[in-house]
Automatic annotation (TrEMBL):
Lineage, uppermost ranks: Bacteria, Pseudomonadati, Pseudomonadota, Betaproteobacteria, Neisseriales
One of the Pfam families matching this protein, by short name: Epimerase
GO molecular function: 2,3-dihydro-2,3-dihydroxybenzoate dehydrogenase activity
InterPro entries per UniProt: DHB_DH, Epimerase_deHydtase, NAD(P)-bd_dom_sf
PANTHER family: DTDP-D-GLUCOSE 4,6-DEHYDRATASE-RELATED (PTHR43000)
Location of the NAD-dependent epimerase/dehydratase domain: 3-240
Family under the similarity heading: Belongs to the NAD(P)-dependent epimerase/dehydratase family.
GO annotation terms (biological process): siderophore biosynthetic process
Protein name: NAD dependent epimerase/dehydratase
Protein backbone atom coordinates (compact mmCIF):
# COMPACT_ATOMS: atom_id res chain seq x y z
CA UNK A 1 0.00 0.00 0.00
CA UNK A 2 1.08 3.54 -0.70
CA UNK A 3 -0.26 5.87 1.97
CA UNK A 4 -0.14 9.64 2.31
CA UNK A 5 -0.18 11.32 5.72
CA UNK A 6 -0.83 15.06 5.98
CA UNK A 7 0.55 16.57 9.16
CA UNK A 8 3.18 13.82 9.21
CA UNK A 9 5.62 15.86 11.32
CA UNK A 10 3.04 16.35 14.02
CA UNK A 11 2.23 14.42 17.14
CA UNK A 12 -0.36 11.91 15.93
CA UNK A 13 0.77 12.03 12.30
CA UNK A 14 4.32 10.96 13.11
CA UNK A 15 3.12 8.01 15.20
CA UNK A 16 0.73 6.93 12.44
CA UNK A 17 3.39 7.23 9.73
CA UNK A 18 5.77 5.21 11.89
CA UNK A 19 3.16 2.48 12.31
CA UNK A 20 2.45 2.39 8.57
CA UNK A 21 6.15 2.17 7.71
CA UNK A 22 6.72 -0.60 10.26
CA UNK A 23 3.92 -2.54 8.55
CA UNK A 24 5.86 -2.39 5.26
CA UNK A 25 3.91 0.34 3.49
CA UNK A 26 5.31 3.11 1.33
CA UNK A 27 4.43 6.42 2.97
CA UNK A 28 4.28 9.92 1.53
CA UNK A 29 4.88 12.46 4.28
CA UNK A 30 3.25 15.87 3.79
CA UNK A 31 3.80 18.75 6.22
CA UNK A 32 4.56 22.47 6.04
CA UNK A 33 6.82 22.18 9.13
CA UNK A 34 5.06 25.12 10.75
CA UNK A 35 5.32 23.15 13.99
CA UNK A 36 9.09 22.96 13.60
CA UNK A 37 9.14 19.17 13.93
CA UNK A 38 11.74 18.44 11.25
CA UNK A 39 13.33 15.85 13.54
CA UNK A 40 10.17 13.72 13.34
CA UNK A 41 10.36 13.75 9.53
CA UNK A 42 14.05 12.84 9.55
CA UNK A 43 13.37 9.91 11.87
CA UNK A 44 10.63 8.65 9.54
CA UNK A 45 12.78 9.02 6.43
CA UNK A 46 15.51 7.02 8.14
CA UNK A 47 13.15 4.03 8.30
CA UNK A 48 13.10 3.80 4.50
CA UNK A 49 10.16 3.62 2.04
CA UNK A 50 9.18 7.18 2.91
CA UNK A 51 9.27 10.42 0.92
CA UNK A 52 8.72 13.95 2.16
CA UNK A 53 6.99 16.97 0.62
CA UNK A 54 7.14 20.26 2.49
CA UNK A 55 3.77 21.61 1.39
CA UNK A 56 1.12 23.83 2.91
CA UNK A 57 -2.26 22.16 2.35
CA UNK A 58 -3.68 25.56 1.43
CA UNK A 59 -1.57 25.45 -1.75
CA UNK A 60 -3.58 23.11 -3.98
CA UNK A 61 -1.19 23.31 -6.92
CA UNK A 62 1.74 22.19 -4.77
CA UNK A 63 -0.35 19.59 -2.97
CA UNK A 64 -1.84 17.84 -6.01
CA UNK A 65 1.31 16.04 -7.29
CA UNK A 66 1.95 14.51 -3.85
CA UNK A 67 -1.09 12.25 -4.34
CA UNK A 68 0.21 10.48 -7.46
CA UNK A 69 -0.13 6.71 -7.06
CA UNK A 70 -1.47 6.99 -3.50
CA UNK A 71 -3.93 4.34 -2.31
CA UNK A 72 -4.96 5.75 1.06
CA UNK A 73 -4.94 9.21 2.59
CA UNK A 74 -4.79 10.07 6.27
CA UNK A 75 -5.65 13.73 6.77
CA UNK A 76 -4.27 14.96 10.08
CA UNK A 77 -2.88 18.38 9.10
CA UNK A 78 -4.57 21.32 10.75
CA UNK A 79 -4.39 24.08 13.31
CA UNK A 80 -5.21 23.25 16.95
CA UNK A 81 -5.74 25.12 20.24
CA UNK A 82 -8.51 27.34 21.50
CA UNK A 83 -6.93 30.73 22.16
CA UNK A 84 -5.24 31.28 18.79
CA UNK A 85 -8.41 30.20 17.03
CA UNK A 86 -10.30 32.96 18.84
CA UNK A 87 -7.62 35.51 18.00
CA UNK A 88 -7.04 34.43 14.39
CA UNK A 89 -10.13 32.68 13.00
CA UNK A 90 -9.16 33.47 9.40
CA UNK A 91 -6.08 31.25 9.57
CA UNK A 92 -8.05 28.46 11.23
CA UNK A 93 -10.67 28.59 8.50
CA UNK A 94 -8.09 28.64 5.69
CA UNK A 95 -6.13 25.67 7.08
CA UNK A 96 -8.85 23.50 8.62
CA UNK A 97 -11.57 24.12 6.05
CA UNK A 98 -10.00 25.27 2.77
CA UNK A 99 -7.00 23.01 3.37
CA UNK A 100 -9.32 20.04 3.88
CA UNK A 101 -11.15 20.92 0.67
CA UNK A 102 -7.82 20.85 -1.18
CA UNK A 103 -6.93 17.45 0.28
CA UNK A 104 -10.32 16.07 -0.77
CA UNK A 105 -10.00 17.42 -4.29
CA UNK A 106 -6.50 15.97 -4.64
CA UNK A 107 -7.69 12.60 -3.32
CA UNK A 108 -10.62 12.66 -5.72
CA UNK A 109 -8.48 13.61 -8.72
CA UNK A 110 -6.12 10.71 -8.03
CA UNK A 111 -8.87 8.17 -7.30
CA UNK A 112 -7.60 7.16 -3.87
CA UNK A 113 -9.14 4.05 -2.33
CA UNK A 114 -9.93 5.60 1.05
CA UNK A 115 -9.52 8.79 3.08
CA UNK A 116 -9.55 8.90 6.88
CA UNK A 117 -10.05 12.30 8.53
CA UNK A 118 -8.89 13.36 11.99
CA UNK A 119 -11.94 15.04 13.49
CA UNK A 120 -12.22 16.44 17.00
CA UNK A 121 -14.46 15.58 19.92
CA UNK A 122 -14.56 19.33 20.59
CA UNK A 123 -17.39 19.38 18.04
CA UNK A 124 -19.72 18.19 20.83
CA UNK A 125 -19.14 21.36 22.82
CA UNK A 126 -20.62 20.80 26.27
CA UNK A 127 -22.67 17.61 25.80
CA UNK A 128 -25.49 16.42 28.01
CA UNK A 129 -24.94 12.67 27.55
CA UNK A 130 -22.06 10.55 28.89
CA UNK A 131 -20.57 8.49 27.45
CA UNK A 132 -21.15 10.69 24.41
CA UNK A 133 -22.32 8.89 21.23
CA UNK A 134 -21.74 10.03 17.67
CA UNK A 135 -25.34 11.19 17.22
CA UNK A 136 -24.91 13.86 19.90
CA UNK A 137 -25.64 17.33 18.45
CA UNK A 138 -22.64 19.18 17.07
CA UNK A 139 -22.40 22.48 18.95
CA UNK A 140 -18.82 23.84 18.88
CA UNK A 141 -17.88 26.48 21.43
CA UNK A 142 -14.93 28.20 19.67
CA UNK A 143 -13.46 28.59 16.14
CA UNK A 144 -11.06 25.65 16.35
CA UNK A 145 -13.91 23.27 17.14
CA UNK A 146 -16.11 24.86 14.48
CA UNK A 147 -13.53 24.62 11.70
CA UNK A 148 -12.73 20.98 12.51
CA UNK A 149 -16.46 20.21 12.39
CA UNK A 150 -16.74 22.05 9.06
CA UNK A 151 -13.84 19.98 7.74
CA UNK A 152 -15.68 16.83 8.77
CA UNK A 153 -18.82 18.02 6.96
CA UNK A 154 -16.77 18.50 3.80
CA UNK A 155 -15.29 15.01 4.12
CA UNK A 156 -18.70 13.38 4.57
CA UNK A 157 -20.21 15.42 1.75
CA UNK A 158 -17.44 14.40 -0.66
CA UNK A 159 -18.12 10.81 0.33
CA UNK A 160 -21.80 11.23 -0.44
CA UNK A 161 -21.66 13.29 -3.64
CA UNK A 162 -18.42 12.10 -5.25
CA UNK A 163 -18.42 8.55 -3.87
CA UNK A 164 -15.03 9.11 -2.24
CA UNK A 165 -14.67 6.38 0.42
CA UNK A 166 -14.23 8.34 3.65
CA UNK A 167 -14.22 7.74 7.40
CA UNK A 168 -14.07 10.43 10.09
CA UNK A 169 -12.61 9.69 13.50
CA UNK A 170 -13.51 12.02 16.36
CA UNK A 171 -10.52 11.97 18.69
CA UNK A 172 -10.73 12.44 22.46
CA UNK A 173 -7.86 14.01 24.45
CA UNK A 174 -4.93 12.30 22.75
CA UNK A 175 -1.64 12.16 24.69
CA UNK A 176 1.70 10.40 24.49
CA UNK A 177 5.36 10.86 23.49
CA UNK A 178 6.09 13.54 20.88
CA UNK A 179 3.05 15.58 21.87
CA UNK A 180 3.50 19.26 21.17
CA UNK A 181 5.86 21.00 23.58
CA UNK A 182 5.95 24.55 22.23
CA UNK A 183 3.58 27.33 21.30
CA UNK A 184 0.31 28.49 22.75
CA UNK A 185 -0.96 27.46 26.14
CA UNK A 186 -3.08 24.36 25.61
CA UNK A 187 -2.97 20.62 26.27
CA UNK A 188 -2.77 19.69 29.93
CA UNK A 189 -0.06 17.02 29.54
CA UNK A 190 2.44 19.39 27.94
CA UNK A 191 1.77 22.03 30.58
CA UNK A 192 2.10 19.58 33.49
CA UNK A 193 5.21 17.77 32.24
CA UNK A 194 7.15 21.00 31.76
CA UNK A 195 6.08 22.10 35.24
CA UNK A 196 7.18 18.80 36.77
CA UNK A 197 10.53 18.85 34.99
CA UNK A 198 11.23 22.34 36.33
CA UNK A 199 9.98 21.69 39.85
CA UNK A 200 6.96 23.96 39.62
CA UNK A 201 3.43 23.24 40.88
CA UNK A 202 0.80 21.92 38.49
CA UNK A 203 -1.71 24.56 37.43
CA UNK A 204 -5.02 22.75 37.86
CA UNK A 205 -8.10 24.40 36.36
CA UNK A 206 -11.07 24.71 38.72
CA UNK A 207 -11.05 22.11 41.49
CA UNK A 208 -9.54 19.33 39.36
CA UNK A 209 -12.62 17.13 39.47
CA UNK A 210 -13.32 17.71 35.78
CA UNK A 211 -12.56 14.52 33.87
CA UNK A 212 -11.08 13.82 30.46
CA UNK A 213 -11.07 10.81 28.17
CA UNK A 214 -7.27 10.59 27.92
CA UNK A 215 -6.46 8.35 24.92
CA UNK A 216 -2.94 7.10 24.18
CA UNK A 217 -1.49 8.04 20.82
CA UNK A 218 -0.60 4.52 19.61
CA UNK A 219 -4.19 3.43 20.23
CA UNK A 220 -5.32 6.35 18.10
CA UNK A 221 -2.85 5.56 15.31
CA UNK A 222 -4.10 1.97 15.26
CA UNK A 223 -7.68 3.21 14.89
CA UNK A 224 -6.65 5.15 11.76
CA UNK A 225 -4.92 2.12 10.27
CA UNK A 226 -7.90 -0.14 10.97
CA UNK A 227 -10.36 2.38 9.51
CA UNK A 228 -8.28 2.51 6.32
CA UNK A 229 -8.25 -1.28 6.10
CA UNK A 230 -12.03 -1.50 6.45
CA UNK A 231 -14.81 -1.29 3.86
CA UNK A 232 -16.63 1.43 5.76
CA UNK A 233 -17.71 4.56 3.93
CA UNK A 234 -19.28 7.74 5.26
CA UNK A 235 -18.95 6.65 8.88
CA UNK A 236 -18.20 8.86 11.88
CA UNK A 237 -16.69 7.11 14.90
CA UNK A 238 -15.42 8.21 18.29
CA UNK A 239 -11.92 7.19 19.37
CA UNK A 240 -11.57 7.19 23.16
CA UNK A 241 -9.99 5.29 26.02
CA UNK A 242 -13.16 3.63 27.25
CA UNK A 243 -13.10 5.69 30.44
CA UNK A 244 -12.62 9.18 31.83
CA UNK A 245 -10.26 10.38 34.51
CA UNK A 246 -10.28 13.42 36.83
CA UNK A 247 -7.43 15.85 36.34
CA UNK A 248 -6.69 15.25 40.02
CA UNK A 249 -5.96 11.60 39.15
CA UNK A 250 -3.47 12.72 36.52
CA UNK A 251 -1.77 14.95 39.09
CA UNK A 252 -1.65 12.00 41.49
CA UNK A 253 0.09 9.84 38.86
CA UNK A 254 2.56 12.56 37.94
CA UNK A 255 3.30 13.49 41.55
CA UNK A 256 3.80 17.10 42.63
CA UNK A 257 2.34 20.18 44.23
CA UNK A 258 -0.77 21.90 42.89
CA UNK A 259 -1.98 25.46 42.44
CA UNK A 260 -5.57 26.06 41.34
CA UNK A 261 -6.56 28.56 38.64
CA UNK A 262 -10.02 29.76 37.51
CA UNK A 263 -12.29 27.46 35.55
CA UNK A 264 -12.50 28.43 31.87
CA UNK A 265 -15.69 29.12 29.91
CA UNK A 266 -16.70 26.89 27.03
CA UNK A 267 -15.05 23.77 28.46
CA UNK A 268 -17.03 20.69 29.47
CA UNK A 269 -16.76 19.24 32.95
CA UNK A 270 -16.39 15.82 31.35
CA UNK A 271 -15.28 14.30 28.07
CA UNK A 272 -16.13 10.61 27.74
CA UNK A 273 -16.48 8.86 24.40
CA UNK A 274 -19.05 6.21 23.68
CA UNK A 275 -16.84 3.83 21.69
CA UNK A 276 -19.50 1.20 21.00
CA UNK A 277 -19.56 1.97 17.28
CA UNK A 278 -15.83 1.64 16.58
CA UNK A 279 -15.61 -1.49 18.70
CA UNK A 280 -18.46 -3.12 16.81
CA UNK A 281 -17.57 -1.98 13.28
CA UNK A 282 -13.78 -2.27 13.43
CA UNK A 283 -13.11 -4.53 16.39
CA UNK A 284 -10.89 -1.76 17.75
CA UNK A 285 -10.35 -1.25 21.44
CA UNK A 286 -7.77 0.71 23.44
CA UNK A 287 -4.79 -1.15 24.83
CA UNK A 288 -2.87 1.41 26.88
CA UNK A 289 -4.18 2.34 30.34
CA UNK A 290 -3.77 5.83 31.74
CA UNK A 291 -1.31 4.49 34.31
CA UNK A 292 0.86 2.85 31.65
CA UNK A 293 0.63 5.87 29.37
CA UNK A 294 1.67 8.33 32.06
CA UNK A 295 4.56 6.06 33.05
CA UNK A 296 5.75 6.00 29.43
CA UNK A 297 5.68 9.80 29.28
CA UNK A 298 7.55 10.17 32.57
CA UNK A 299 10.30 7.97 31.15
CA UNK A 300 10.76 10.66 28.48
CA UNK A 301 10.35 13.66 30.74
CA UNK A 302 13.47 15.23 29.23
CA UNK A 303 11.57 15.77 25.98
CA UNK A 304 9.87 18.72 27.70
CA UNK A 305 13.15 20.45 28.60
CA UNK A 306 12.55 23.24 26.09
CA UNK A 307 8.78 23.44 26.56
CA UNK A 308 7.40 26.74 27.87
CA UNK A 309 6.91 26.91 31.62
CA UNK A 310 3.39 28.11 32.36
CA UNK A 311 2.57 29.86 35.62
CA UNK A 312 -0.76 31.22 36.92
CA UNK A 313 0.18 34.74 35.81
CA UNK A 314 1.35 33.75 32.31
CA UNK A 315 -1.73 31.55 31.85
CA UNK A 316 -3.94 34.46 32.88
CA UNK A 317 -2.31 36.63 30.23
CA UNK A 318 -2.46 33.94 27.53
CA UNK A 319 -6.12 33.14 28.13
CA UNK A 320 -7.38 36.72 28.46
CA UNK A 321 -9.09 36.67 25.06
CA UNK A 322 -10.61 33.27 25.92
CA UNK A 323 -12.39 34.71 28.95
CA UNK A 324 -13.22 37.97 27.17
CA UNK A 325 -14.92 36.26 24.23
CA UNK A 326 -16.50 33.20 25.83
CA UNK A 327 -17.02 34.37 29.40
CA UNK A 328 -20.61 35.47 28.98
CA UNK A 329 -21.50 31.96 27.79
CA UNK A 330 -20.30 30.33 30.99
Amino acid sequence: MKALVTGAAGFIGSHLAEMLLDAGNEVVLVDDLSSGKRANIDALLARGKASFHQVDIRDRDALMPCFAGVDRVFHLAGRADIVPSIEDPDTYFSVNVTGTLNVLQAARAHHVERLVYAASSSCYGIPDVFPTPENTPVQPEYPYALTKAMGEELVLHWGKVYRLPVVSLRLFNVYGPRSRTAGTYGAVFGVFLAQKLKGQPFTVVGDGTQSRDFTYVTDVARAFAMAADSNLCGEVMNVGSGGHYPVNRLVELLGGDVVYIPKRPGEPDCTFADTTKIREKLGWQPRVSLEAGVAAMLERLGDWQDAPLWTPSSIETATRSWFANLGEQA
